Amino acid sequence: MACSTDINNYFVSEANRLSSDTMYRNWATSPWDTEEIVPKTRWPDGMGATPNFLVFERSMPLTNGITFQTYGFNDGGEGDGGGSCTPPTVTVYQASTRRTMSLKKAAVESEQICIEDGRMAWEIVQQGSHILRNLQNNSRYAWSVQRKTEFTSICSNKAVADSSMTTSSSSFGTGTIGTINREMLDYWYDRLVADGAHQNNGLGTNEYGQPVLPLILSREAQATLVNNETSLNNIRWSNSADKLLGPRGSFVNLEGFKHKIDIQAPRWNLVGGAWVSVPFYLPATSAGQDAEVNPDYYTAQYEDLFIASNQVVKFAIPGASLQAGPMKFKPQDYLGNFEWRNIQDNVCNKDGNIGYFRGILGYGAQPGIPEYGCVLRFRRCPINWTVNTRCS
Question: Cβ(384)–Cβ(198) under 8 Å?
Fold first, then answer.
């Protein structure tokens, strides 16, 4: 058995050379970091690898609708002969949809740390805190990405901003796609409210009694919507006119939607008729590489916004306790919380002085009502400014 050589040597190499006044480079945050959009539930044990779930659908009477007939007094015939005691009857048959989910898992570890190096190292406690914090932010970012990914996958309204608002439950169209505008959101607002997506979404109604839907979009997309001529005039002559001069993201509620700004909104390029994702962070290509924001993210051609009902998908998390009769196992945390591991063995860690942080992430994407959400893909407008070369 070969032992890992992936041992943190930073403790040794930087001993007596660094000031204790250190900084930590923070990660970007997102509305998808919390469970507000994708709630958490429990994974059902003992139901196989792909548990089934039923959604009881709306259903109408078979063949014809409910009809009413005018009656007077009964004619006295036997059984009333079709009189007022036996009105026309229709049968409503139950409709349901069966959906499944599968368990997905991932594990994240730190590099190994030898305490013997730490005896002579610079600020070992502080270094350990930074290592743990970076792992926790990696876990948070992974959850955020998965929530967006699973919502998009399960949502049955995958639309593109073309002349026909092409919509599919399986994929995004690749035709001639334009920029976002208010009329597109009006269309989806009416369609989703008619379908009941506003019910039980936790936002209720506005001051005029109209339903409010959640909208997750970039600051750039919000600016495009606000600068729409109709919207701009409506705002200019309303009691919210001061927000036009406010900071970015000032419009929390606008035209039936509650806005949440996501500076990591999914972006895409259309290459050879296929969608290619443009990640927010550049993936590391070498050990210890800084996580930098991808410069291509700012020039990507297309972007997604979400009408993000919390009824589209849930994350089913496996329980921590693992026990079957007399068989007991170490409880597992599948939420990506990290614990210190120091596993002594007779080969690689004979003295029990080498350890590492490890966290496990696990979930099943439990479908809810896919029709209650929408992911709209649209073309981004390139940055446009006028450079004044004269000073006067």
Answer: no
- Give whole-number Cα distances, 250 to 99, 181, 219, 261, in Å: 39, 18, 10, 10
What confidence score (pLDDT) does residue 6 get?
61
Helices (H), strands (E): how many in the chain? 6, 19
d(CA 254, CA 265): 19
Q: For residue 159, which of 270, 311, 307, 277 has the smallest C-alpha distance?
A: 307
**pLDDT (0 to 100) of residue 392:** 62
321-338 burial by CB neighbour count: b if 16+ within 10 A, else e? eeeeeeeeeeeeebbbeb
Burial of 294 (0-12, 13-18, 19+ CB in 10 A): middle
Lowest-confidence region among 65-74, 137-146, 193-202, 216-225:
65-74
Q: 341 is written with which tokens?
A: 């591991």
Note the pTM of the prediction, 2 decimals: 0.84
Residue showing tokens 């005029």: 208
Q: CB of 203 within 8 A of CB of 191?
A: no
pLDDT tens string 34-83: 999 999 998 887 777 788 888 888 888 887 788 888 777 665 555 555 66
Per DSSP, helices labelled H in 196-277 are: 219-226, 229-236
Q: What is the pLDDT of residues 316-351, one digit of tens each?
A: 998 866 666 676 677 778 888 888 888 888 888 888
Cross-strand pairs, 355: 113
In sequence order, the 6+-apart residues with CB closer than 8 A to the CB of 25 are 290
Comparing CA positions, the residue from 319, 324, 314, 327 lying closest to residue 360 is 319
Contact 158, 44 (CB under 8 A): no
The secondary structure of 342-371 as a DSSP string is ----SSS-TTS-EEEEEEEEEEEEEE--GG
Q: Give CA–CA dist 145/264, Å, rounded.
A: 9
- Amino acid found at 20: S
The answer to whether the beta carbons of residues 249 and 218 sit under 8 Å apart is no
Burial 210-235 (b: 16+ CB within 10 A, else e): ebbbbbbbbebbbebbbebeebeeeb
